[in-house]
Automatic annotation (TrEMBL):
Protein name: phenylalanine--tRNA ligase
GO CC term (a single one): mitochondrial matrix
Gene3D superfamilies hit by this protein: Bira Bifunctional Protein, Domain 2, Ferrodoxin-fold anticodon-binding domain
Main location: mitochondrion
PROSITE patterns membership: AA_TRNA_LIGASE_II, FDX_ACB
Domain of life per record: Eukaryota
Source organism of the structure: Elliptochloris bilobata
Keywords: Aminoacyl-tRNA synthetase, ATP-binding, Ligase, Mitochondrion, Nucleotide-binding, Protein biosynthesis, Transit peptide
Length: 369
C-alpha cells in the first residue's frame, strides 16, 4: 500500500501526523545508525552459528492486514493488543504492524525454514525512557529438521527450546560480553508455548529486550511445515542498542543531531555513547476527572506526543482517587519535558501544556480540576 493511503478518513483510522512522519525513516537501513549497526551485528552472529541458513528480510512494508498481524498469529478475538487503544489502524482490516511476527506465517508459506526479519513496528504505548510508539524489531525463526531430534515430536519441542535459549544467550554474550546480567522470565504469547522473555540489567533496572518461545504447532501446520517443530523470537532493537551503546533515552535514536549520529560507525560495537549534555527537565502536573465514556493512559500519551513531539520524556500517573460520594475518579499525571538538544524555556512549555489541557477536555472529554 502506498504511504499516502496511511492517513485516511476511515472512521477506524487512528494514525497521527506524528506517527505518519516516521514511516519510511528506516533507521534499520541507515548505515552508520546504531539500529542498523546492531542489526548487522545480530545477522553476523546468526551467520556464524549456521552459515547460509537464515534468509534475511528488512524491506517488508509496515502496513499489513489485521489478519497477518493478529489472526495468523492466533491472537484471540478479544485480545487487548487488537484494540485501537494499543494498535494503529488504517481501516478496520489494515494496521501498522505492531510486531514483526506479522510476517511469520507468510514467510513460512513462501517455504523459508529459517529467517530473520527486521522492520519498524508501531504501538500506542506509555511514555518513558524505554518506550516509543515506533521502534524496531527483529524476528527470528528456525524450523528444525526431524533428524535433529530423532523424529519424536516431544523431543523436537525440547530441542527447539534448548537451541533457542542457547542461541539467545550466545547472542547476548556476543553483543555484551560476560559482564552483563541477564535473566529469563516466563511469559505468554498466543503464538508460542512455552514462552519466555529475556531481561537485562541496565541503568539500575531490569529491561525487557526480547520475547520468544517454541512455535505453536498450528502455525507450522497451516503454513507449509506440517508436523514440524520450530523456535521463534522477537528482539527489541532499540532496547539492545541502549544496553550496547549505553544510550540512556530511546528518543535519541530519532535525533538528527550530528552530536548523536557522529558517535557511531558501521561495524563498531565498542562505542560508548557520550551524552553531549543533560539539559534540565521541566515537570508539569495535570489533574482531571475521568470522563464517563472511559479514559486510557495511551490516549493521554498520544495527546501529549501530539503537542510536544519528542520534548516529552515521561508521563506518569502520580495520584488517583475516587470521590466517596459521587463515585467519580480523579487522576493526576506528571509530565516531564526535556530536550536532548537544548534548554527549554517557560513560554514554550506553558504553550505545550496549555494545548495538552485543552485537548484533554476537547478530545478526551476529561474535566480539568
Ligand atoms: C512481541 O512483539 C512478540 N511478537 C515477540 C515474539 C516473537 C515472541 C516471536 C515469541 C515469538 P513484545 O510485545 O514483548 O513481544 O515485544 C518484543 C520486544 O519489543 C520487547 O521485549 C521490547 O524489547 C520491545 N518493545 C516493546 N514495546 C516497545 C516500545 N514501546 N518501545 C521500544 N521497544 C519496545
Ligand atoms: Mg513483552
Amino acid at each position: 500500500m502506498a504511504q499516502q493511503e496511511v492517513l485516511t478518513s476511515h472512521p477506524f483510522n487512528n494514525v497521527t501526523e506524528n506517527i505518519f512522519s516516521k514511516i519510511g525513516a528506516n533507521l534499520h537501513r541507515r548505515q552508520n545508525h546504531p539500529i542498523c549497526i546492531i542489526k548487522e551485528a545480530i545477522y553476523d552472529f546468526f551467520n556464524s552459528q549456521r552459515p547460509g541458513t537464515y534468509a534475511k528480510f528488512d524491506e517488508l512494508h509496515p502496513v499489513v492486514s489485521a489478519a497477518a498481524n493478529f489472526d495468523e498469529m492466533l491472537v484471540p478475538a478479544g485480545h487487548v493488543s487488537r484494540s485501537p487503544n494499543d494498535t494503529y489502524y488504517i481501516d478496520a482490516d489494515t494496521v501498522l504492524r505492531c510486531h514483526t511476527s506479522a510476517h511469520q506465517a507468510a514467510t513460512l508459506r513462501q517455504g523459508h525454514p529459517a529467517f530473520l526479519i527486521t522492520g519498524d513496528v508501531y504501538r500506542r504505548d506509555s511514555i518513558d525512557q524505554s518506550h516509543y510508539p515506533v521502534f524496531h524489531q527483529m524476528e527470528g525463526l528456525r524450523v528444525l529438521e526431524p533428524d535433529e531430534y530423532g523424529g519424536d515430536p516431544a523431543a523436537g519441542a525440547a530441542a527447539a527450546e534448548r537451541e533457542l535459549k542457547e542461541l539467545l544467550e550466545g547472542l547476548a554474550q556476543h553483543l555484551f560480553g560476560s559482564g552483563t546480567e541477564c535473566r529469563w522470565v516466563d511469559a505468554y504469547f498466543p503464538f508460542t508455548t512455552p514462552s519466555f522473555e529475556l531481561e537485562i540489567f541496565f541503568n539500575g533496572q531490569w529491561l525487557e529486550v526480547l520475547g520468544c518461545g517454541v512455535v505453536e504447532q498450528q502455525i507450522l501446520d497451516k503454513n507449509g511445515f506440517e508436523g514440524r517443530r520450530a523456535w521463534a523470537f522477537g528482539l527489541g532493537l532499540e532496547r539492545l542498542a541502549m544496553v550496547l551503546f549505553q544510550i540512556p533515552d530511546i528518543r535519541l535514536f530519532w535525533a538528527e543531531d550530528q552530536r548523536f549520529l557522529k558517535q557511531f560507525r558501521a561495524g563498531d560495537l565498542r562505542t560508548a555513547f557520550k551524552p553531549y549534555s543533560k539539559y534540565p527537565a521541566c515537570f508539569k502536573d495535570v489533574s482531571f476527572w475521568l470522563p464517563e465514556t472511559g479514559f486510557t493512559e495511551n490516549n493521554l500519551c498520544e495527546v501529549v506526543r501530539g503537542a510536544a513531539g519528542d520534548l516529552v520524556e515521561a508521563v506518569e500517573l502520580i495520584d488517583a482517587f475516587t470521590h466517596p460520594k459521587t463515585g467519580r475518579t480523579s487522576n493526576c499525571f506528571r509530565i516531564s519535558y526535556r530536550s536532548m538538544e537544548r534548554s527549554l524555556n517557560d513560554e514554550e512549555i506553558n504553550a505545550i501544556q496549555a494545548q495538552v489541557r485543552e485537548e484533554l477536555t476537547a478530545k478526551l472529554g476529561a474535566e480539568l480540576r
